[in-house]
Amino acid sequence: SMALQSSGRTPAPPPPQRDDAPLLAAVAQAGAAAGPCVLLDLTENSVELRGYPSVQGPPALALSLPMGTVRTAQQFFRGDIPTPLELEAAIAEVEEQVYSAHQQYRRVAAHWGAPVLWCSASPAWAEMAVRAGVSAAQHAVLTMEVVERLFQRLAYVAEGRPAASEGLPASSAFAAALLLLRELMHHIPFGALHLPMGTARA
C-alpha cells in the first residue's frame, strides 16, 4: 500500500496546495518551457516552494516556509500599517527562514544547469503588479527593482505618510506579502517573479 511505501521516508514533501498543471502550462506557453522553474504559492500561513527541473515535471523540491500574509502580519504588525521597527523585526525573522530555504534550494538546483524561472499565480503578488503599474492580462513580471520601489513606498507609509498617497492599501496582509517577496528575492536569490497567468484575478 501507499502508506507502507511512504513510511520509510521522512520527512515527506508537503502535498502541493494546488494543481500545478495550469501554471506549468502557462509557463510553457510563455516560452520558458526548456528550463527549470520554481513555483511559489503564497498562502495565509505559508509560502510553498516547488522546484521543477523542467515544466514536464515531476517536482524535485518541495519546501513549506512558516510565513504567510496572515501569519507574518499577526506575528509582527500590531495595526493595519506596520511601524518601521515592526518591519525591521519581521525582516530579521523572515531572512532566517529564507536563508534556510536557500540552502536546501541551492543543493537541489545546483544540478539543474540552466537559468531558473520563478513563477506564481498568487493573487496577493498579482495585486502587487497592479499597484506597481506592471499588470498584464497574460504574463506580468515583478522585477527586483519594481519590488524595491514598492517596498520603499511601504517604508514611507510606515514612517507616517498616508497609504493612499503612495497608492498602497492600508493592509497588514499586503505589507506582509510585499516583505516576504522582497526577502525571498534578495536571499534565495532571484531577480524576477513571473506571473504567467496574468494579474486579472488580483
| Range of strand content | 5-15%
Supply the number of helical segments.
7
* Count of individual beta strands: 6
Can you list the strand order of the major beta sheet?
3-2-1-4-6-5
**Biggest sheet layout:** 6 strands, mixed
CA-CA gap between termini: 42 Å
Low-confidence stretches: 1-10
H-E order: HHEEEHHEHEHHE
Task: Supply the helix-strand structural class.
Answer: alpha/beta
Account of the protein in words:
It is built from seven helices and six strands, in the order H-H-E-E-E-H-H-E-H-E-H-H-E. It is an alpha/beta fold and 202 residues long. It has a six-stranded mixed beta sheet with strand order 3-2-1-4-6-5, sandwiched between helices. Strand 2 and strand 3 form a beta hairpin. Helix 3 packs across helix 7, helix 4 packs across helix 7 and helix 6 crosses helix 7. The longest helix is centred in the middle third of the chain and has 26 residues. The radius of gyration is 17 Å and the shape is globular. The termini are far apart. The relative contact order is 0.18. The N terminus is likely disordered.
